[in-house]
């Protein structure tokens, strides 16, 4: 496949899946964000830090409108970033992935990447609404989360390379090795330093919707990328036969 076509389908699939992700977040997670922010507002009113009134509400509503209006675009940008990584990994590994159709291959790879770079870190450091947690620990919490993503992702890559080198009867050792490796990392990584004081139904609802949105993103990205790749490959094959 020509480089410009590869770049095009990776960007199209990533951005398309990202806009779907942003729209889903707008529908499913925004109500939880509104509730979490309102809890923070009430705490500020009670402490005297802010005064509830028309001026505060006008400024707050304008800020939230700005946030919500950019959510779909932000999802598209997120989709471009993750989709680019997904496309590069697929380009290098597609010949070793199971499945006859490229959609089957992309779905298999998406499941692996979803599990290693999202679900495992998510289980260790589940998402919280932005207003939940100490603002002074935001950087530390981000470092923990991103570090665990890197540990899980690079660990999966290392054991995948081991998997390719092992004989068929011993390939199970690569899966067992990764399971042991990530279990040790899961235990050794520090806990989230903040206690969750918000109502757990709010927090759990936000976490569930966040995980659902990311999962749908990976599925949509895989289906679009696989379908476009399959179509271009079939077109290229037909052109070669006609020559």
Q: Number of domains in the coordinates? A: 2
**Biggest sheet, open or closed, and with what strands and sense?**
none
- Category from helices, strands and their pairing: mainly alpha
Task: Give the helix proportion (percent range).
Answer: over 70%
Q: Name the overall outline.
A: flat
Terminal CA distance reads 17 Å
Low-confidence segments: none
What's the alpha carbon Rg, rounded to whole Å? 22 Å
What percentage of the residues does DSSP assign to strands (E)? Answer: under 5%
Tally the helices: 8
Instruction: Estimate the mean pLDDT confidence.
Output: 88
> What series of H and E elements makes up the topology?
HHHHHHHH
- How many β-strands, per DSSP? 0
Task: Characterize the structure shown.
This protein is mainly α. The protein has 2 domains: 3-122 and 199-242, no CATH class; 133-195. Helix content is 80%, strand content 0%. It contains 8 helices and no strands. Helix 5 packs across helix 6 (138-165) and helix 6 runs antiparallel to helix 7. The longest helix is centred in the last third of the chain and has 43 residues, at 200-242. The radius of gyration is 22 Å and the shape is flat.
């Amino acid at each position: 496949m020509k480089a410009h076509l590869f770049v095009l389908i990776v960007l199209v699939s990533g951005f398309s899946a990202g806009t779907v992700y942003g729209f889903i977040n707008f529908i499913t997670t925004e109500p939880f964000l509104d509730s979490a922010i309102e809890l923070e507002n009430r705490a500020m009113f009670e402490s005297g830090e802010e005064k509830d009134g028309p001026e505060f509400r006008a400024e707050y509503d304008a800020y939230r409108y700005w946030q919500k209006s950019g959510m779909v675009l932000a999802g598209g940008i997120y989709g471009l970033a993750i989709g680019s990584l997904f496309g590069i990994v697929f380009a290098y590994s597609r010949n070793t992935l199971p499945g006859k159709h490229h959609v089957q291959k992309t779905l298999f790879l998406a499941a692996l990447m979803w599990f290693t770079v999202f679900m495992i870190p998510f289980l260790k450091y589940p998402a919280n609404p932005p207003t939940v947690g100490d603002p002074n620990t935001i950087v530390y919490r981000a470092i923990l989360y991103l570090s665990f993503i890197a540990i899980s992702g690079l660990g999966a890559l290392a054991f995948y390379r081991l998997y390719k080198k092992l004989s068929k009867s011993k390939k199970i050792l690569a899966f067992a090795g990764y399971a042991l490796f990530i279990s040790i990392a899961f235990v050794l990584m520090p806990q989230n330093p903040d206690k969750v004081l918000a109502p757990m139904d709010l927090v759990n609802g936000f976490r569930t919707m966040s995980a659902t949105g990311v999962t749908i993103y990976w599925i949509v990205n895989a289906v679009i990328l696989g379908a476009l790749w399959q179509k271009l490959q079939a077109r290229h094959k037909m052109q070669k036969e006609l020559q």
